[in-house]
Amino acid sequence: MSYTVRALEKSDRETWSALFRAYLHFYEVDPSTDHMDRVWDWIFDPNNDFWCVLAIAQSGHPIGLAHYQLMHNTLTGKMTCYLADLFVDPEQRGQGVGRHLIDEVLSIAKGKDLPTVDWLTEETNHAGRRLYDT
Question: What local confidence, expressed as pLDDT, does residue 73 receive?
Answer without folding.
Answer: 85
